[in-house]
Amino acid sequence: MARFQHLEVFLALIPLLGFISGALRWNSAIVFVLNILSLAPLGSWINRSIDTLTISGWRTVNEILKSTLGNTVELMIGANAIVQRQPHICQSVILGSVLSNLLLVLGGTIFFSGYDQKRLRFDRALTTVLSSLMMVVFILLALPTITEIFSSAKATPADQILFMQRITSLILVALLLTFLIFRLGTHATMFASTPFSPPDQIQGGHDVSQSRVLDAQIPRPYIGKALGAFILAAASASALTCTYYVVSSLSGFSAIVGTNQAFLAVTLIPLFGNAVKYYSIIVNSRSRHQVELGIRAVINAVLRVTMLVAPLLVLLGWACDEPLTLRFDPFEATTLLLSVVIMTYLISDGRSNYFEGLMLIGTYAIITFSFFVRPEPPANVIFLGP
């Protein structure tokens, strides 16, 4: 326990150094590195405090709380990108979060859960529902890109594309709320069942809660609700500050290391910001023989980003009178679509093995390398207007 407390103190110093480096305007590389490293412990503290503040009997409220503050990196990076008028960073981080979840984390979960087993089995009906919903969501998100590619600028004015994006965002939020009713109310038994779990993982006729998959394998001292609320407020404010410095120093760091901003935003920011969450899903799915819960956690994380975080950022730009729409270029839209198709195909039959996990990891490596060698694309025109 003493060693754990020393680690907590050390991790608390990283955000402090990040604040100092940004406030004193140190070299862009130092500011970027210190603040992006700060996102991992801050994200861990936010998730832990959210778990402490969950209200018994208010599952929908708890889910919305986890969907917003549980995706701190994507939400706060996007908000800061809107403020600093760098929308391409917001778009790249959302894309990177989706790719890392669908390919890297899901692949790691399947690989580490099945490398010593002939076959992994999970609920086919449940994964079909979730993957179908994901496909619909991505089609809705891709509509601005499709409209731009297959019609001329005169045929579809920019203000109409913006209006379509805002309406789509409202529909996605409404769809998410309906999905929560479907998941937590009318079809709760479907999401609670884990028929392929080992007997020792079943408690009282019900499966181990999905949230337990996200618990890190380290000792954690108990914190009350008052302290949890304080930690949540402090960690969220700190994360907002750190993400501000990450966004402001990204271009300078990109110039120093000689790589494009899209690669950094697609890979480094989601990986460091969600490192603890990704690690927990992979390790706990293996240690508890609960690959199905790991798959659920991955798909739910993607749905939260695409059905709540992305629409909220569009609506935030609307509220701030900063016209914002998420239009991916053809390369980004293609990688997004292929990732969803590959993931859906591999889990559609309710069976998998470690090699399919390696295929997902390999696909992620190839896509990220493509972003690395790809020339810096022109800034995507997301803000429409003066």
Automatic annotation (TrEMBL):
Annotated TM spans: 93-113, 125-143, 163-182, 226-247, 253-276, 297-319, 331-347, 354-373
One record GO biological process: intracellular calcium ion homeostasis
Ranges where the Sodium/calcium exchanger membrane region domain occurs: 29-184, 230-372
GO CC terms of this entry: endomembrane system; vacuolar membrane
Localization (cell): Endomembrane system
Record's keyword annotation contains Ribosomal protein: no
Keywords linked to the UniProt accession: Ion transport, Membrane, Transmembrane, Transmembrane helix, Transport
Membrane topology, from the record: Multi-pass membrane protein
GO molecular-function term, one example from the UniProt record: calcium:proton antiporter activity
Pfam families the UniProt entry points to: Na_Ca_ex
Family label: Belongs to the Ca(2+):cation antiporter (CaCA) (TC 2.A.19) family.
Protein name in UniProt: Sodium/calcium exchanger membrane region domain-containing protein
Species this protein is from: Penicillium bovifimosum
